Fold these 2 entries.
Entry 1:
Amino acid sequence: MLPDYDPEYVDYLFSRIVHDISDKYIIEIFTKYFDCTTEQVEQAIKKGYEAERPDIFHDYIGTALLNASINDSQEQAQNALDDDFHIWEMLQLHNY
């Protein structure tokens, strides 16, 4: 769905944002700024609801993506996702 990101990260991302953003806005953000199809986003949302929400101490990604949408800024949305992905990568390295 998001070819520039690890599929495990995408699952992790959606397990978090489905609890913070309405499905309508998730679909709008990912189809507009990340070149995903509605069907891909709907499937990711479904997987997100089925997954256990990670217990994390700081979660800004939902707010960051909504702000990007409000500002209609693809760059802001991309930067938010890139930053979150790098945090996930560091957590993965720390866990191993």
Entry 2:
Amino acid sequence: MSRSLPMLCVVVLLVAAFAGDALGKKNVVRQLGGACGEDSDIVATCDAGLHCSNGNCAMNSFLSDASRSCRDIMIKAGVIGSRDTVAVHDGFCYKSCDGMYELAMDATPVTERLMRQAQVGSQAFADEFAKLSAGDKAKFKAAEDKCNSCGKQCTIGASFLGRGGY
């Protein structure tokens, strides 16, 4: 009898635990686009790789901060749609600008040094630029001129430092 009492207690606890789940809210997992959130009857969560956004399951973004910033600017400028991608390389954000990749990569050390010290277009930036060697000035200027020649397709800024990521 002494062994049956603890076993009975365990069984009663297990039944109570399962009954509590059965009487509580129903948990469901939703797919992309499905409704998510909580109401009086259910708790609807999103499947792996998704998050709840405005009551619907949406895909998680794995974009870097630089890519996200670049995409937002290009979308606002009307250059790309919400599903399009952009290129981000060490201070330069662009969609279609032939030759920009090579020039941006060549100017990387200079661009990073300049943009970490001052905002593009500021007097402090001009002062830092003036301190550069002739070779470094030429590298940055070539990338900047190419970017400017591409119009709305390319922009420069410290929020694009780093590389894009998906």
